[in-house]
Specification:
Elements lengths: L4 H28 L5 H8 L3 H20 L5 H36 L9 H22 L4 H18 L1 H16 L7 E4 L3 E8 L3 E6 L4 E5 H6 L2 E3 L7 E9 L5 H15 L6 E2 L5 E4 L8 E9 L5 H19 L15 H6 L1
Antiparallel strand pairs: 1-2, 1-5, 2-3, 3-4, 6-9, 7-9, 8-9
Helix pairs in contact: 1-3, 2-4, 3-4, 4-5, 9-10
């Protein structure tokens, strides 16, 4: 076993030096990129695979030096070569999976892909890379992968039949990611029953956080089959319509002007109310039974901000109408009660 001493020492020394250089490089990158950016994300992605790189480098140096000095028997050298090949395949597979997952996440954060890619998208990428790496590893070990692929095909058919609901949700999730009717962070209404912010589109279900701060989990299949209202597409802006009824004796021009003045004056004071397009007021076509009905139209920044904007504008309009002496009609209904005896006596 003496012929193993020198290669072992070389392996330990080279690996230790490589790990030291790795630690210094990662530490330097973390200090240089304190804010989250591409470099810091890539450094985080290769943090674990770089340990394998160090081991592979030490093993390669030990085998190369031992082979040149002919200190190892041929059979043992071949075995160490196989170990080196396996380590290289594992390190490359883990590195590619981590880097691709990180790149997709960074691209989604910059909205280069139209919206944040959820856990399903990253899981699919990592899964594909790991499966390919596993098959390459089996081939390197001399294991025939053709029978394995055949067995997986037959077994996959049986599994598909047994997991129809799960697979339908999986493919529905992939369809949601590809077609993008909803995205993580969008405010949506699904099937007129669930309304809130999309938290995640997973491999089986979609999670929606409602305004009451509770999360509703919906199977992807049901989401894909439902009528979806996305309040953030094509952009979050929303046209807010506020109906105002005044007495028939009111000055129509005056009512129109003061509605526009109140909405315009609230811009900059009411959060979420936008200056463009400019607010407008229109007399609703037709005439009401007991009032003239106007519609005040203005733009709000997002769907959820409309409630606070309506609240503030209605208070301002009500106050202004009172100052101008414009009445808001109240419908009064009268009920006449008659007794049966009185009818007969009449």
């Amino acid at each position: 076993m003496r012929y193993l001493v020198w290669p072992a020492l070389l392996f330990v020394a080279a690996t230790a030096i490589a790990l030291l250089v790795r630690a210094l490089l990662l530490s330097g990158i973390r200090r240089w990129a304190r804010a989250p950016n591409g470099w810091s994300s890539l450094a985080q992605a290769v943090r674990v695979p770089s340990v394998l790189w160090s081991i592979v480098l030490g093993l390669w140096i030990a085998i190369d030096v031992a082979g040149e000095t002919e200190q190892l028997p041929r059979r043992l050298s071949q075995q160490f070569g196989l170990i080196l090949e396996v380590a290289i395949i594992l390190s490359v597979t883990l590195t590619v999976a981590g880097i691709l997952s990180t790149l997709i996440q960074r691209a989604s954060e910059r909205q280069a892909l139209g919206g944040p890619i959820t856990g399903l998208g990253q899981a699919v990428v990592r899964g594909v890379v790991l499966i390919v790496g596993f098959l390459v590893l089996l081939a390197a070990l001399g294991i025939q992968i053709t029978p394995i692929l055949t067995a997986l095909g037959v077994g996959g058919l049986a599994v598909a039949l047994a997991l129809q609901d799960t697979l339908s949700n999986l493919f529905a999730g992939a369809h949601l990611l590809a077609d993008k009717p909803i995205r993580v962070g969008d405010y949506v209404k699904v099937a007129d029953t669930v309304e809130g912010y999309v938290v995640d589109i997973g491999w089986r279900s979609t999670r929606v956080r409602m305004l009451q701060n509770m999360v509703v989990t919906i199977p992807n299949k049901r989401v894909a089959e439902s009528i979806i209202t996305n309040y953030d597409l094509p952009d979050p802006r929303l046209t807010l319509l506020i109906r105002v009824s005044v007495d028939y004796g009111s000055d129509v021009e005056l009512v129109e002007r003061l509605l526009i003045e109140e909405a315009t004056g609230a811009v900059g004071e009411v959060a979420g109310l936008m200056a463009t397009p400019s607010p407008s007021a229109r007399l609703i076509p037709g005439f009401g039974d007991f009032s003239l009905d106007f519609t005040l139209s203005c733009q709000v920044a997002s769907f959820t901000e409309q409630f606070a904007v309506q609240h503030e504008l209605r208070k301002r309009i009500l106050r202004r109408l009172g100052v101008e002496g414009i009445r808001i009609p109240v419908q009064v209904r009268a009920a006449e009660l008659r007794s049966a005896g009185a009818d007969r006596s009449g």
